[in-house]
Structure formats: C-alpha cells, structure tokens
Amino acid sequence: MKLSSITTKYTLPIGQQIVEGLEKGGLKWFKPFLENSLSNAPKNAISGYEYNGVNFWNMSFVQQMYKFKMPLFASANAWKTVNAFVKPEEEKNCFPIFYWFKVKNKKTKKNDDDEEKEKTSYYRMQLKITMGYNADQMDLSKSNWTYPKPQQKTKNKVIQNLKIEDFVKNQNGLVLKHSNEAKCYYSSTLDYVHMTNKKNFIKTKNGTNETLEYYSTLLHELIHWTGHEKRTNRFEKNKKEFKDNERKAYALEELNAEIGANILCIYFDLQKTVNKNSLAYLASWKKYLSDDAIFIYKALSGSTDAIKFLENNLKTAKKVKKVA
Questions:
Q1: 65: buried, middle or exposed (CB in 10 Å: 19+, 13-18, 0-12)?
Q2: Quick one: DSSP state of residue 14?
Q3: Angle between helices 295-323 and 5-24 in degrees, nearest 10
Q4: 157 near 201, Cβ under 8 Å?
Q5: Which conformational region is residue 101 in: left (phi greater than 0), alpha (psi within -120 to 50 degrees), or beta?
Q6: Which burial class, exposed, middle or buried, applies to 317 when counting CB atoms under 10 A from its CB (0-12, 13-18, 19+)?
Q7: Of 159, 202, 205, nearest in space to 182 by CA
Q8: Could you read off the pLDDT of 247-304 as tens digits, one per residue?
C-alpha cells in the first residue's frame, strides 16, 4: 500500500501518538454523557430492563395518566420477589405488559398412502400479556426495595463553538437530530446522525471537558456519516476488504471515525494532541493493530479521505446556498 503525501505529512504524527498512547496502556474509556434519568425511561422495577416498542409508549402514557412518580412497573409475582405486595384497593388497576416468545411446533408430513412420513420442527412467535403494577401501587412496608433517586437536573456546560457548528450545519445532505436519549450514533439505514442533548455531556476521569466531548463525539459521528454509499462508500469497501472478518472491518471504521474526529478537533483548536479519552477508546481496538502494521495507516488515510469529502461537501453546500 502506498501512502499519499498528504496522509504522510498530516496524519503520520497523529498515528504515532496514538500508537504510543496504546502501548502505554492503563487507560480506560469513560462514557462522556449521562444515561437517561429514571424519571424519563419506562423500566421494569425489579430487573431494570428498559421497556421498548409498544411497552415504552404504553407505560409512558400510563405514568402520565395516573401521575405516578416514576415509570417503574413489574408483575405482581415479580414484586413478590422483593416482598412488595399490591395494595388491596389497587388490585383491579393493573396494566398490560406485552412479551413475544418463541413456541416450538412440529409439522407432520404424510406420504401418498396417508401415512406419517416425517416430523419437522419449526418455531413461531406468540404474544403473551402479563398484567403489571406501578411502584406507587405497591405496599413496600415489608420490602427492602426503594425508589431509585432520579438524577439531578444537569446544566449545559458545553461552550458553543461557532466554527464547528457552521462546519456541521452546512454539510450538504446531513440530517442531524438531538434528543434526551442517552446515545450518540450514526444510523446507516436511515442515514442520519443522532446526538444526545448537550446538557448530558460531562467531564471524564481522563481529563476531558464537556465541550471537547460533545464536539469530538459529534465529529466522530460525522465521519461515520461520510462512509455511506452516497458519499465515500467506505462501508462497502471495508466489507469487501475484510469479508472474512466483519469485526476487523468494524474496528477499522471506528478508528477512521475517532482519528478523523481528533484531526478535526485539532484543526478547530479544541485540543493540541489526541485526547486521553480517545486514546482509551482506541485501546479497545489494539488487538487489530498488533498483527497488522499497515492497519493503522489504512485508518489514517480513510479518515483523511473523509475529511476531504467534508471540506468539499461544505463548499458544495455553500455554492448551492449562494445560487438559491
């Protein structure tokens, strides 16, 4: 593989810093944003499992309708495991919780003489409904179960960086969404970037602040966005190159995104070198670097191509706006 002069000049020093950081070890990646507050997401009160699909909406509506303190539900039997019992006056006021489960069936084939020839097994999904109760409906006098403390309201400590905001906002074709969901990701299927709200970003034990973590995460997802077939088609190229090792293709894409984000953070003067939380994150992919000397350079060149695309796409977006 021949490295371009641009890749060598601008990204090789960063690559060397990354390798040095990985070799030192001992770094741990810290999630730079808060989980959803318990007051927001409907959960099973006993297992902590977050309800999804129809249960998410149903439990959310139930909480609002009955003004329960928290959307924490469980079946009467589940509540009994923690010595909590339904209050007599609440026994009739239960709410459906939906579960899908597999049921094994056997199908018998018959021959021409109407005799059983063979039996084959197959599975089908069956819906089960369990009636549940909110924590407010339970007698907890003999239970050691207590209401979880909701998280304190967080304040937005992210300092706005107009250069990055404009760089992202003016990307032609980008769909960027924000919500209180405690996840940041790029959806390749629906082709959009999702960010948790700025107020959810926190300092990490690796010394990075809220502003750096928000924008480095945003730029990380933006690099992922460039890999779509409508842009650099990087995802498909990685799949072909590592068709026998999907995990390695995924590792390369994560390196592309994290290295690209660091380059952009340096470009926008948010940091001087690769930040420690990124090094800790990249360390999780170290095993894919140790046996492939050129792997890191593929990531470096891939991130450089992504940045080039963003720069050109920004110019295109500006031209379109001028014409309009």
A1: exposed
A2: H
A3: 130
A4: yes
A5: beta
A6: middle
A7: 202
A8: 778 888 888 898 889 889 988 988 876 777 777 777 766 666 554 556 666 777 788 8
